[in-house]
Predict the 3D structure of the following.
Amino acid sequence: MRAFAALYDALDTTTSTNARVQALVAYFRAAPPADAAWAVWFLSGRRLKRFIGPALLRRWLVEIGGEPEWLVEEAYASVGDLAETIALLLDRRDDGADQDDVALTEWVEHRLLPLRGLPPEVQREQVLAWWHRLPWRECFLLNKLLTGELRVGVSQTLVARALAEVANLPRPAIEHRLMGDWSPSPEFYARLVDPEQRAEHDGSRPYPFFLASPLEHPPEQLGDVRDWQAEWKWDGIRAQLVKRGGQVYLWSRGEELVTERFPELAAAAARLPDGLALDGEVLAWHADEGVLPFGVLQTRIGRTKLSKKLLESAPVRFLAYDLLEQDGRDLRSLAIAERRARLDSLRPALPLPLIVGDLVAADSWTELARLREGSRERRVEGLMLKAKSSVYGTGRTRGAWWKWKIEPFTFDGVLVYAQPGHGRRSSLYTDYTFAVWRGTGLVPVAKAYSGLTDAEILEVDRWIRRHTVERFGPVRSVEPVQVFELAFEGINRSTRHKSGIALRFPRIARWRHDKPASEADTLANLEALIGDGTPS
Amino acid sequence: MPEPTSAPLVVPTAAGLYCPAGDFHVDPWRPVERAVITHGHSDHARLGHARYWAARPGLGILRKRLGDVDVVPVEYGEPLAFGRARVSFHPAGHVLGSAQIRIEADRATWVISGDYKREPDPTCAPFEVVACDTFVSEATFALPIYRWRPTAEVVDEIREWWLANRRAGVASVLGCYALGKAQRVLAELLRVTDEPVYVHGAVATLTDVYREAGVAMVPTLPVSAARKDYAGELIVAPPGADATPWMRRFGKASTGFCSGWMRVRGNRRRRGYDRGFVLSDHADWPSLLRTIRETRARRALLTHGHSDVLVRYLREQGVEAGALETAFAGEDGGTDTPATAGGPPLGAVGAPTDANAPAVPERAREA
């Protein structure tokens, strides 16, 4: 694990893209294929489920550490990362560098995975022995692995770039090989960096998703409106529906196989011809009412058991807007206008609940802008603009696909609670709760983490520390003085919240230094928005 | 051990720590008649006092920072009389000329540590354990996560980073507090190299003072507009300089920062440095506990940083302990945030005007 720890460190300690790619390349060139496979697994954002909960790790630390529990908690509050806190508190030996290095594969396959199912006292004995021996960087990584939180701050594109350099292949080839379901075996790694581009065997594999960039300039700058294909921007789950070898695979954008979550889609897709890949959106959709709010779709996500009742209350459709593969042929290098024509000709063959999204026709940008104004009534987020001549790229390549979203809702809320963030924000108060007025009292309606500049975060942090009213563990209540404008995408009634409402994707738009708390919004103001783009 | 009296020898006041028995202040932050100064950092040595007392090795620093003020240089260990208090200065090992202040009056002995560390430092006299009844200790890094590694290891890391950057054809810009840390690094680098190091103007003036005091360091060259290519060179700059246009001249550069705060990964990442080197001029957790024990003090009073944590810990260990409010830490919330340490301390009036202030405000707390 030493080499992987060194790689983690190298990636963690430089902001230079080139240096990071070179660190990855050096690692992959030197690592045995089995280790490299696991490294790719972790670097591509995949995780092993938590082996041991944080509470247990903390208890063991207190039991062996000699530090009182409150002091461990103080340390944790200051560091903001349990794996790091444990490693720092245990780091009192001179060094463990003289310890034998144990390969990453050995760690994962022969030490960590067998931990599952062992009685806690045996797990404890194992973990304490490792803690005792490991140098602190490896101890930190071990703790991240134990808690299932190992994340390496490196983009997929960089990992693919490095692997492409190692394999001497174009990056998209690597990206494609990294898609889908694979297990981190030496054989997988060998195929991944195989310089021969032979036919790909894995029939389940989706194509890397092509992503749109937000349109931040007037659409007129895109040139002639006739060169652009406009579609509604749906608020669902981006997904790829693949049918090959008689099997159906539904992939979410997070490269998660979600086929089983949507049995009605899988059943319909089973009737499609083989060698087909559709790009589109999974939407909650009622036969009479049309698309339903994202909140309804959410009731389907994360449920392992799909009851009949749930399938009825949250029916879904797959709305296709692109055709990536037909008759086993990769169509991505065709212009979208051509792919669209083929998709349209597929329409009659698509059984419900599979549908094809309509294009939005307009003769001018002005007309398109006017249509966009009606987005909320249609329960969409705005428009997608796709250059008619563009091919299906990978990742977020600016210029070909734009998302032209409608303005978010906004309200003014009062800062009432704050707690420290995580990671690089762990010693700053960056997680805020905002409230609005209900009568003479304030009721919390939203938590928001993002939207302020670094300088503002520092200023708010300082203010919070000086105006704390009470502390509840890591949370501080503050004087209800500061007003912030918050943006959000939608609003629903909620029985789980004291306020009775739930906001979708709230974030800070700006700090309203100019507004006293008394002029913040009321709950009634927010409730009035329910039904605006949201069926009740 | 003499019976402690009920009247404290040092009390917190609006102007700073005050000794009623001797009618003087220690490191006051408002203008006073008699200011006893522990060391030259800007949150401890401010302008505006009628008369200063400071340890002789730190005289040059004080002159450089405060100009032509009325300073009485004091030898370490030299007995002084203030009113009915006997006062002496003892090395604190923090920076050149740093001192602990021993005060004896009314059959009691107090020691005010100022900022201190226990690691050997070639730029200043080592910390001296001074027995006392009440030990007023800093508590900047009073959490058990703060443990320093041997300085030689950190210096090796810096050298390796520098050489790796040279191989990559980029400059290495190392953030160090302009007073103390910078010179300590320049002196420690002699272990591994005698190559010259480039220094920011704010570092250069204080480095000259150290050289005049006889501290051996690697050769230093000023960063000047004339030289075009800094690839492969090491540049020592005050923290924050890397966020200014001054940085542009180096082209591609890797940035590092030397500080005890760098022990925590989030601190380094939040500040946006490529590399953090854990090197502090303050006492780490084991040193704080050891020092409080070695002074054989009946009672510890803590200032700065995590004083509440250390107070509770000591009390649970059966040591009488309390917190003493000061403005040194600049942080008023209770938990550590180096990011807020630069803010104006509570109770401080005006910002210290420092003729030789670095281009970037020096962090008050850590050095």
Observations:
- Residues 151-167 of chain B form the longest helix (17 residues).
- The first strand of chain B starts at residue 11 and ends at 13.
- Chain B has a mean pLDDT of 86.
